[in-house]
Each structure stands twice: as C-alpha cells, then as structure tokens.
Amino acid sequence: MTTLLRIDASARGVNTQDSSRGSVSRQLATAFEQRWKMKYSQDEWIRRDLGAQPPEFISEDWIAACFTPTEQRTEAQRQILALSDTLIEEVARADIILLSTPMYNYGMPAALKAWFDQVIRINKTFSFDLTRGDFPLAPIMSGKSMVVLSSTGEFGFEAGGIRQQMNHLVPHIRTVSHYLGVEHLFDLQVQYQEFKDQRHQDSKSTALEGIGPLMDKLGPLHK
C-alpha cells in the first residue's frame, strides 16, 4: 500500500459556484486524487491544508529548541516543536507528496515556505557532518516522490520560456525537497490565469491530460 500526503497551499478555496474564482492548483490536485483513487483505491491519504491553516513561522526560541539535545529540552521547548514533529511525521509516512500551490510573486506562498521551514530540521530530516567537507548536509529519509501541481497568473515559466528566470517556485521546491528524501519530482503547471482567455483554458486542459502519463511514471516507483 502506498501512502500519499496531499498538501494544498493556496489561500483560495474551491469555489463550486464559479470555478474561475477558485483555486486552480486545488482543482488540479483534486483531479489527480480522484484518478489515483480510481486506479489505487486501497492507498492511504494524509491531508494538510496550509492555505486554511498556515503553520507558524519559526522563531529564535524554535531554533534554540531544535539545537537543544532531545533529553535536555524543557516542556516549553517540546511544545514549540510539537507542530514540527507532527508535520515531519506526516512526511515520514508518505511515499508520495502531492503538493498543490499557486505562484505568488514568482515564488512560494508564505504558508508553504513556513511548512518547509518547519519540516526541514536538523537530526530529523537531515544530518550535518563536517567530515563531508563542503557538503555537510545530507537527507535522512529517502525514496520519496513529489508531484508539484501549480498555477501561475502569467506564462512562460517553463524551461526556455520568456519568464524562465523569474520562476522561483518549482526550482526552489526541487532544491529543498531533496532534504525530505524526495528523489523523483514531477510537475504540471497551469498558466495564463490572469489573462482568462483561451490560452488559459488550453493550459488547464494540457495539465489535466498530463495526469495520466504522470501516474504511469509514478506507479512503478511505488507499487
């Protein structure tokens, strides 16, 4: 049985009355989930809605608690790390992380960045060893896949596109997800959202059509 962790980062919900006002990335993730369930009905799903319940930002006290040996932590420090512990446990259980997110200001929503800051944690998801030379960080977990389903107001963020250098969303996610044990990352993106024209509809159709082939790639990795 495969375990999937679905994370939704959009501040928008799903608008059942007018889909144009709802979250496109959530729509894409729901389409993926529905198709996955039809094919693999026995699999387990974990859900985390960052848009509805944003994680707290890390603080000086949070950092101090992380670097305090477990057996020496105070009750207050254990409470500070409680959410981080829960979020990391969800990641640890997951074989596949299904991440739906919009692009805000050419990068991650603040809630998603806060989530990464909570889960990428020394001695929990990565180790630090100076004997490794100039690359002392190494992931503790391994063998995971991540699917990034995103939406953008503009267009041309793909490799070779006119806004490739402005895409700080997927490249950032690709870099930091390595420290969560992600070894395979796939992404589908809906563009032209602010233009609300045929190009946007075509982009959405292309992304939806891409779910099937993407599942064909994922299946052999985790079945």
Automatic annotation (TrEMBL):
Pfam families: Flavodoxin_2. Keywords: Flavoprotein, FMN, NAD, Oxidoreductase. SUPFAM superfamilies: Flavoproteins. Its cofactor is FMN. Residues 203-223 are annotated as: Disordered. GO terms for molecular function: electron transfer activity; FMN binding; oxidoreductase activity, acting on NAD(P)H as acceptor; oxidoreductase activity, acting on NAD(P)H, quinone or similar compound as acceptor. Binds 1 FMN per subunit. Its EC number is 1.6.5.-, 1.7.1.17. Residues 20-187 form the Flavodoxin-like fold domain. It comes from the Bacteria. The keyword Transmembrane does not apply. Belongs to the azoreductase type 1 family. Also exhibits azoreductase activity. Catalyzes the reductive cleavage of the azo bond in aromatic azo compounds to the corresponding amines. Homodimer. This is FMN dependent NADH:quinone oxidoreductase. The lineage of its organism: Bacteria, Pseudomonadati, Pseudomonadota, Gammaproteobacteria, Alteromonadales.
